[in-house]
Every structure is written in structure tokens, then in C-alpha cells.
Amino acid sequence: MQVGLRQKLETCKSLPTLPAVAVHVLRLCQRENFDIADVARAIGSDPALSAKVVSLVNSPLFGLRKEVASVSHALVLLGANAVRTIALSFAVVTDLREHERAGFDHRAYWRRAIFAAAAAQELSHNEGARNPADAFLAALLQDVGQLALEQAAPEQYQAIAADAGSDHAKRVALEKQVFGCDHAEVGRWLMTQWRLPEIVRSAVGGSHEPARWQSGADPATTTVVKIVALSGLLADAWVVRDPRKVAHRLREQAHQILGIDETRIAPLMRRVNKTVADVAPLFALQVGTIEELESVVERVENAFAHPREDLDDVLPIGGAGALADQLPSRTDGLTGLASRARFDDYLAAQFEFATNAGQPLSVIMCDPDHLKMINETFGREAGDRALRAVGKLVGERLRARDLAARYGGEEFALILIDTHAEGAAVVAERVRKKIEDAQHDIGIGDPIRMTISVGFATLDQSLGYNSPADLLAAVEKTLAQAKESGRNRVARPSLNQAA
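Request: output the structure for the sequence above.
Response:
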């Protein structure tokens, strides 16, 4: 780092600082013989922080079989270092967000940060890393040097940010040109001032050039440095405008850094989507709908399959205009739900994930009763209004990872992630009852009442299916049973139907 820049950083009074509770927790954990009860009390002194730590530990991010009830319980299950790092993550992010200033694109900054952190967590699982919490924190803070540079040299850095836009590589090149170093090196310097663990400092410093920080490092640190470097490249897929550039660079670097081949990237990105959907709300971050997130993965897959084709620009998640609106073929024009093509692609991806992870996956199919009579009596326009009304109710109250689609001409379908048969039965009955109880205005005067027939099937240990097509065949069979049994009811497959 140039002497002039170091002096600016050292004399800058507005640099990001470590919150008092984080400093206290760090000091406790750095003692040779510390008491975990002291760590629990330190974190518990901030009730909001304590609640967030417990929520994150109980999230799918850690996959614990037993729910954690307190910080003390988390310390026993995960160890002091992991819980310390989780607490640091929340404390630092909360403090940084409370001191945001105009002139910097904080929305884009935090979007990249949360995707990088989620990617680091997934990569840690893939690589069997012993320090997944450290990788999560380092990935989350890998760009904090940007905030330091913007505070120490605001005019110069705002010009760099305006020129680079969402192109991270260009930003790094401009930083080196202007300051003689990049924000990763500045971030490592800041982590040193904060006295964060060396494994986190090395990973932040090596986020752009991992080889530079691996020399002489222990194997655990080397692994985390590589993971964090790749996490930033993965995160770029959700924030840059040109997916081709991300896809080609990602394919090359994923193999070079961690030996990950192209076929593993899209499934990894889908797991990142799932993690982000669970974790981002805990950090009060908005990342967009699951539809938007999944469409990014589809664009990257398309770039892998057709490397020479031009693709339309991808808007940043949460930017003006949802990605679903930019991809009309993925959305049904009449109902606004996902299209059949989108449904098929999503089901294929989730079926593969559920099969590999041993998790349940449920599909519900619905068919409005006697819609043909409405069309014949009142006309096609009234029938379309009826379909829109039913579609709106079918798609209500779904979780971010679930999907509602127009399956066929009159049929609707739901994909319920990580949902057992009993849960699917509850959702199916709720949908049936909502349609039955509602009054539907279809433009013919008085509102009308309608009913709907529903069938569902579940991929789990008791009912196995060899492919998405087999699962859909079972769902279609149950829907037919519901209609043949008198309509306005829910049907489910028996054990011998799935055999």
C-alpha cells in the first residue's frame, strides 16, 4: 500500500469501526482460557444481536437437527469461534448500515456481500472446510475496503465507482491505477486494525488474488482464501449486467481455484439462492423474488450452453423492472404466474436437488370445476377473468422458494420445496377452500362462486419417483381422481400408486 494512501486511511476519522459489543466478544475469545459463559453474556447484552445469532444458527445455513434455544446452547453445539464469528457478522453489518452515507451505491454493495457470503457457506460444505463461519464472515466483508476508500478519498473513489459501475474487475483495475492497490488490500488493513482473526484477514486480502495470500498459510486458511475468492466471482452473477462475461470468467476461475467443473456451477448457484432467501431477511436485506434469482441461474446456464450467442443484459436484482418482466416467455401472460416452461425447468432442478439432498418435494395440481360451462355461457372473456381470479388465489401465501404456475389451459400447479405430504395436504386444502369461499367477479354482473379439484404427490422416502415426469404423472392421476370422485376435493396418491 502506498504511503500516501496509508496516511489518508490512518488520519480519516470516519472509517468503519468495530462495534463495542464485537470488540468485547473478540477480546474474550482471544484469551487463553476464556469461559464460554462470558461470551454468552457478552452477546446477550445486546438482545437484538442475540436474537439474530440464534435465528441464523437455526436457519438452514447450519443444518442443525436440533433447534437452538439460546446463545449458550449455540456455543455448546457450534463452539465459541463459530458463534463469535456469527455475532461479528451481525454486529459489523448492523453498524455499517447505520452509518451509510450518500454518494455510494450501498444497495449494490450489500447485494454482492450477501450473495458472496451465501456462496462461501455452500462452497465450505462442498470443500469440507473446517471454518465455514470464518469463510461466511470474510466473504460478507471482502469488499469493506471500498467503504474505507470512499471515506478516505471520496472524490477519487466516487469517480472510480461511476466509471466501473457493476464491473468488479474494472473497479479493481481502476483502484490499482489510482491508489496503487485494490480494496481487498485495504480491507485486509482494516481487518488488522479491528484485530480480526488472521484467517479472516487473509481471506479478505486474497479475495482478488488468492495465490498471493496462500504462501506459507496453513491448509485451513488456504481453503478459506480460495473459497472467498470464488464466492465473489459467483456473487457477480447476480449483480452485473452481462451474464456472458460472468459465466465465462466463472467457469474458468471455478476450475482454476477449486477444481469445480462447469456442470456443478448451476446446482451450486441454486443452493445459494435457497440460502440467500433464508438468510438475507435476517440482515434486513432485500434481494428480489425467487423467480428473479432463478432466472439469473438460467441465464448463466444458457451462456454455458451457447457461449457465442448474444444475450440481453440482465438487470441488477431489485433494480427497475423485475427480471420476470424482462423474460415474458417465463411468465404466463394471462395470469401473471410462471409459465409451463418455467415450471418444467424449476421442477427439474428442484427434483435433482431434493433427490441428492434427501429432502421432500411436493407438487400440487388444480383444475377449476366447470370452467368450460362459463366459457360457453358467458364467453371466452369471462372465462379468462375466471382463470385470472383463480390464479391469483392459487399463487397467494407461498414461500419465496415455492413456485405457482399455469400448467395447462385451465390447470394450475404448485411446487413446494422441502415439503412433506402432510404439509402439501394442508396447502392443497387451503387452496381448495379459498376458491370455494371466494366470490369471483368475472364481469357478468353479480360475482359468481367456483370450486376447484386438487391433486398432489410428494417425492420422499415413502413415495419415490425416478424422474420429474414420473412425479407429474402421479399428480395428474390424483387430479383425475379428485374430478372423478365428484370434484371440489383433494386427492393424494396411495403407496401402491408410486410403486
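The first helix runs from residue 3 to 11.
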